[in-house]
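Good morning N.,

You mentioned wanting to compare the apo and holo forms, so I went ahead and generated the holo version with S-adenosylmethionine. This is what I fed in:
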Amino acid sequence: MSTGSLPAIFRLDEAVSAAVARHNAVWQARWERFLAMNPPPRWNPSLPVDAEWRMRYEICLPVAEYVGSLRRLARLVLPHPSWIPLALGTTIAHLAPRTGFPSLPDFWSYLPLEWWGRVTLTVAELPALLAALADPPQFGTAAGRYPNQLALLREQHWTEPVTVLDVGCGTGEGTGEVVALLREMGCQASGIGVTREPLEAWMGSTGCFPHRSSATPPTGVRFVVGEAEALPVIGPFAVVLCNGLIGGRFVQTEAAFRRILGEFARVLARGGIVLVGCRFHAGREAALAQFRQLAAATGWQVAGDCRDLVLGRLGGKV
Ligand SMILES: C[S@@+](CC[C@H](N)C(=O)[O-])C[C@H]1O[C@@H](n2cnc3c(N)ncnc32)[C@H](O)[C@@H]1O
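and this is what came out, ligand included:
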């Protein structure tokens, strides 16, 4: 997308140009020092980021400072501090979940390949960078990733209008897919996607993706910014989706699981279902099993395996 057609949510004025010039001057000088001190080979995306690479990059290009510099640019460009992608938060341990000590290659690994090996940027590139940080490739929010959920929904008989709640909806492709399926089945369906990233909610509702091809926004879906642990909705919802959230890096503790299960119970319609899926890499099984056990112990009827859970309230028809 050309920046000329970007809506006014991104402020790209002279103050931003001056701030980008300052950022580039600092980081270009540091980059040149890094290149002088580190003859090839250098890190590239086909290599794992290990302690040796982290040390070499951190000495010249400390990632916490780099992220801090981008955060200041984001503050100038975006409508409100709450819009700054969480990836630019003041704690950046999530960039290297295993060690908690990230480096610039960890930051590049989070982004689409075109950002690898770069520390400077242009004003026109800022919307795409911020959008990519809010909607990184690893979120992989494309439709078609939870076929078991679609099969299960296809088996139900929908007689009443249905509102689907999608908790941690990303940019809403999955929400739109489920609403479209229910509509194809003759059900009067609509959806609400909840995410804590305002830029995701904006991209989902406008279909405007500065970092990838634009798309038609999903029909019948609206987006609300909010937390899974304190949902900004009342309900009741006959279908609650929660994919790619539970047991992932955002929601791992038993306390968070309890609060989220409490929120599901609060908003779920009598006889409704909660579908909890994930496509995480191996290594999340213990957390997923813990969530499943906790649900079973707190009044939920549980079916499916840990990566494809189906929850209903005991006493309610599933
Ligand atoms: C891995 S993506 C999954 C997106 C989508 N559900 C899917 O599976 O295709 C995780 C999503 O949850 C959102 N998220 C993370 N923590 C959250 C929280 N505490 N409350 C609400 N949304 C959250 C992220 O911004 C992102 O939209």
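The chain has a mean pLDDT of 92.

Happy to go through it together on a call whenever suits you.

Best,
F.
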